[in-house]
Amino acid sequence: MKNFTFNKDSLQLIPENCLNHTPGILYLCGFIVFSNSPGNQEELTGLIKRVRSGGFSYIPVYAACIEIHELSADREFFLPCLFIPNHISASSKSYPDDKKLFNLGVELAKEYNQDYFLFRPMGDDPVAHYIDNTGNAVMTFSNKSVHDLANMYFTDLTEKLYPPEPKRFIFIKYLYLNKSPKDMQEAIVRYGEHFYNFKGRV
After folding, report:
1. 80 CB contacts (<8 Å, ≥6 apart)?
2. How many CB atoms lie within 10 A of CB 169?
3. DSSP, res 109
4. What pLDDT, on the 0 to 100 scale, is given for residue 23?
5. Does the pLDDT at position 202 exceed 50?
6. Model-level pTM?
């Protein structure tokens, strides 16, 4: 399958039992989830550079979606998004608060003409919000794991991109991450990305 970022290798499946630990290990420091126009490689590349220039690390996450339609063959497609933890770029060190992260999300929503982004504030309070491009919370969620939030975000994204039709159903099958860099040159190109290794690949 075609990758949407700088990764040279195939993608890797996030094992279900690891999803709430990776990138769930960053849960308490806070994060945002943001997507650009699906399939627009140039725009996604620009988004990654924008996140890095804003001083943050990032994790590309891909949802494998299945479209089932009674009148045609099943179709599988991938949707990418960026998980942006409240970490200084290319570092595991968190910012002291999440104000800069929140402001980045609002700026990105305006720049990329998105209605909202997902914001998980820093701290122990298990809440997350959809934030619109004016900085207002339009929906709040409580006691949701990273797995729950990721599936919810991608489900809402597919419904936005592909409005419901009779006899058609779209669901999220799996979530994937990039493989770690194969060499130093690739690691430099992917500066700022958090890397993980699992067994499942596509």
Report:
1. 4, 5, 35, 38, 44, 60, 61, 62, 63
2. 11
3. H
4. 54
5. no
6. 0.85
Are β-strands 137-142 and 127-132 bridged in parallel, bridged antiparallel, or unpaired? antiparallel
Which candidate, 180, 202, 150, places its Cα nearest to that of 16?
150
pLDDT computed for residue 16 by the predictor:
64
Q: Identify the residue whose tokens are 């849960």.
A: 27
Task: Give the model confidence (pLDDT) of 14-45 as tens digits.
Answer: 876 666 555 555 677 899 999 877 667 788 88
Q: Give the C-alpha separation, 1 to 179, whole Å.
A: 13
Give the DSSP letter string of 117-162. Answer: EEEE-SSSS-EEEEEETTS-EEEEEES--HHHHHHHHHHHHHHHHS
Q: How far apart are CA 166 and CA 71, in angstroms?
A: 10
Q: What pLDDT, in 10s, does the model give residues 63-93?
A: 888 888 776 777 788 888 899 999 988 777 8
In whole angstroms, what is the distance from residue 21 CA to residue 101 CA? 21
Residue 172: phi and psi, rounded to 5, are: -90, 120
